[in-house]
Amino acid sequence: VVLVSGHLDSWDVGQGAMDDGGGAFISWEALSLIKDLGLRPKRTLRLVLWTGEEQGGIGAKQYYQLHKENISNFDIVMESDEGTFQPSGLGFAGSAEARDIVKEIMTLLQPINVTDVYDNAEGTDIAYWMRDGVPGASLHNDINKYFWFHHSQGDTMTVQDPNQMNLCAAVWTVVSYVIADMEEMLPR
């Protein structure tokens, strides 16, 4: 299983469009693009739209509890939760050998200048999996304006730039598809 994900959590004010509707959208879009292109990877691509992240990650905890017995089947868990602004690369948590593979995959994104692999993946919703050794990835993007809108009345659809979101979706699509279609799972 290659898991792509986002969540909806700014339910108290605003619309939660950037935090984290954008992460949910690019995850949905990645699988939609792969399907529309008629691609069928060797492994399962799974979309999870988390709930309850702000209430202590209860949705992620429940999902983990329901699926942890199959942890050896999870290749990578990916979460976008810091906006969908201009992407720069991926945060990655996993073995050095897996990191080298992810770095090679990121070279495919050179045409859109999104090739960096950062030292740490973050995400409340994927933390259980990473703690247990499953490689994890999180979207890195230009977060200079993130806290202008984070959990505020201003977190509306007008914050989203369709071009930047398309680039984020491209990163999510390429990385998830290539990993799902590799002959072997990422090394742990």
UniProtKB/TrEMBL annotation:
Coiled coil feature spans: none
Pfam families: Peptidase_M28
GO cellular component terms listed in the entry, alphabetical order: endoplasmic reticulum; extracellular space; Golgi apparatus; lysosome
Subunit record text: Homodimer. The monomeric form is inactive while the homodimer is active.
Any GO BP: thyroid hormone generation
Official protein name in the record: Carboxypeptidase Q
Keyword Hydrolase set for record: yes
Peptidase M28 domain: residues covered: 1-172
Primary location group: endoplasmic reticulum
Protein's organism: Gymnorhina tibicen
Family to which this protein belongs: Belongs to the peptidase M28 family.
InterPro entries: CPQ, Peptidase_M28
Entry's Gene Ontology molecular function annotations: carboxypeptidase activity; metal ion binding; metallodipeptidase activity
Subcellular location field: Endoplasmic reticulum; Golgi apparatus; Lysosome; Secreted
Gene: Cpq
Keywords on record: Carboxypeptidase, Endoplasmic reticulum, Glycoprotein, Golgi apparatus, Hydrolase, Lysosome, Metal-binding, Metalloprotease, Protease, Secreted, Signal, Zinc, Zymogen
